[in-house]
Amino acid sequence: MLQYLRDVFELAFPNNCVECRKTLFNFETTICSSCLESLPRTHFEKQADNTIVRLFWGRCELEMATSLFYINKHNKVHHLMHQLKYKNKPLIGQRLGKTLGLKLIEEGSLFSEIDMIVPVPLYWKKEQQRGYNQALQIALGIQQATQWKVEENNLVRVIENISQTKRTKYERWENVSEIFEVKNPEAIQHKHILLVDDVITTGATLEACVHALKKVEGVKVSVASLATVER
Ligand SMILES: [Zn+2]
């Protein structure tokens, strides 16, 4: 019932903040400035050594890695990520992606030489169910801020789940490296790719993507996400 009332409210007042419901100003979209400013920032884009960089140590080779916000069960970031993934709110991805993009090109950022953005793909069936890929929405937001090209539908997910149980370490690696596939390697040869996802927890999905991308000659990869847990 509560959700129903919320949906009705949003139909009646589409120009309200998805977080606090306050009316948006003309210069605001989807989330109001005061909610945006209240989200807990990491500032990782300016730190060559941060917990996301460390998360991938010994797993795959990255140029740089960052997350924009900290997420925990009780904060606004969690609520926004939940709406982005499960409540048919793709514009949250674009709005926060734009904020992330602006940070990536700010003075002092270590993400200066990106050639293209690649969103982490969903398995086709999952994308069909959800109606959109949230990582692509974030990529589009980053593009609005940076003008970096979005390379869509080149990296694809060919296996639905990472089934890691009851496997040896070697088999697990084999499994992970075959989840994603690059369809057109020529298009990304010798490019510096910004790989984009919504939330980084274990990093297993991103690691699998990096393995697939790195099979292509001369590819460099950096990683950016909207949120991560505090480590
Ligand atoms: Zn708000």
Q: Write down the CATH topology of the largest domain.
A: Rossmann fold
Q: What's the pLDDT, averaged over the residues? A: 91
Read across the widest sheet, the strand sequence of neighbours is: 1-7-6-2-3
Bound molecules: zinc ion
Class computed from helices, strands and strand pairing: alpha/beta
Per CATH, which architecture of the largest domain?
3-Layer(aba) Sandwich
Task: Please give the count of helices.
Answer: 9
> What is Rg?
18 Å
Largest sheet: 5 strands, parallel
Share of β-strand residues: 15-25%
Helix amount? 25-40%
- Domain module tally: 2
Poorly predicted runs: none
> Could you give the order of the helices and strands?
HHHEHHEHHEEHEEHE
The shape is globular
Distance between the termini: 37 Å
CATH class category of the largest domain: Alpha Beta
